[in-house]
Amino acid sequence: MCCRRCWPLLAEFAGKVNLIYIDPPFDTGADFSFTATRQEPKLELETKHAYDAPGEYTVVVKVIDILGNDTTKTVKVKVR
Fold it and tell me: What are the residue ranges spanned by the domains of the chain?
């Protein structure tokens, strides 16, 4: 729950803000760590695609973690 000083902000930003993150003071000695878990633990590790002809192709691989962070890498694949 929010403190009384935040109440005026609730009406102004209601429905406009999904998340507010406050950087905690790490010099307090407190443990601010947390564990995030996936709602759907199944992870597809394979995909299929049919190429028209053998050769070398450039593929883009994008990975998104459970927090929504993503990274993209371009790799070359050889199709026989």
Answer: 4-79
